Amino acid sequence: MVIGLLSMIIVTPLLTSFPAIYGIYSVCISLAIFLSYADIGFLGAGLKYASESYSQGNLNEEIKIIGFTIFILSVFVLIFSFSALFLSFYPELLITKLENSVERGIASRLLLILSLFSPLIIFQRCLQLIFGIRLEDYVFQRILMIPSAIKILSVLYFFQTNRYDIVGYYLFSQIITLATIVYCFLLAKKRYNYGIRLLFRSIRFNRDVLNKTKTIAFNSLYVTVLWVFFFEIDSVVIIRYLGPLEAAYYAVGFTSLSFFRSIFSIIYGPFQTRFNHFIGSNNIGELNKFFENVIVRTIPIVVIPILIFVLLADHVIIAWVGMRYEKSIIVAQLLSIGYMFTFITQPTSIYLTAIEKIKPIYFIVTAMLLIYWGSVFLTINSLGLLSFPLSKLIAFIVSAICYGVYALKNTGLNIMSIAKGIAFPIIVTIVILIIVDTIVPLPIDKSKAHLLIFVSLGGLCTVVAILMYYITSKEFRNYIDSKIDFKKMLISISNRF
Q: Which residues does the chain have with pLDDT short of 50?
């Protein structure tokens, strides 16, 4: 998360120096994200059954399952790779309004690099399975921090006063990733005595493994496909119909949403396992109680930081990437407001998955997709770029209502108690920010120093708001008090002095 934040602060402002070119680059990044879904659900299924084989000490079966999973992924990645290769010769088929030969050349080279290096995702996923099955995914993640740091530092070379080499930076990033993958395979061989040669020979179609994994894989495929069309295809549509400049404005706004998404995935990820523990012990009453506790305890972490960002977005974005991205402010605000409902949508989705009621999720995700693209279709001619974040916000609100209604009816959730607890901190936060902005006019210009000021101000307001929530929410206060003995802490501090 820290590496991601540093990348936003250091790398993004340099990349956005030329909006049109940054828009082209952002689309290549968006296209690469599609590859995360290319396993069509078999990666998760493969992880489950390969983990079972590992626990039984059956390494050959584990490798056979991973090999088949990687085979499925490889088929789609290679199709994608050849498609990107074709587009590298005709970039205008993907990107409209390429103003000159320079922009066309950059687009062509970026797509060529994407094509040549897209198979790296196959080996990255393979390594995630190998390390993850052994509950040592953290080892892989620690190693990935090193190339990430190198990529961040490399911007000082590729982007200087009279130099803007985004193609060189993208190529260098891919080479660093390749070197990291090679090292990780060597580490897996040494650390686990893993049969790398056997693994590569096992990358092929296997009917037995298909029959074992297809039920789980296909159950998640529908939601996965819809989620791709809801979250990941925006930039491609925008650059095709509105051009690279509009894609750049949207990419900056979407980056803030991506940062919140990564944080919330860290927060809510472990709860899925805990929910399943209650199901395994057939303890629905405790599951419902725990579900409410999750919402009560995480709502300030979700709502308050997003609210503060929305209120400070104009200052933050201009200090971050400059006045030319003023159009990105409203995009970032609308997208972030929509994601403020994560405190109810994420736990309820995990709850439904745990109790194996997938149909409500199918219905909600389908409704979100239809509402989103239906609204975009109806408003794009009149609203232009604004139609995308506004339509997404409407879809987010509808999904929050649907998940909220289900939670109220089936879990005994006391929404009024939660609303009363969070209302006061929100009001206090808004008042504080208005007073600060009135008494001390905040600067509006591109500056790392000013960005640091706004981040610090947002952090301070977040702390104050969470303290207010601690005072007003009995459930949250009891939970914190059970974890932290403030009286003992104060005594310990006083004794030191």
A: none
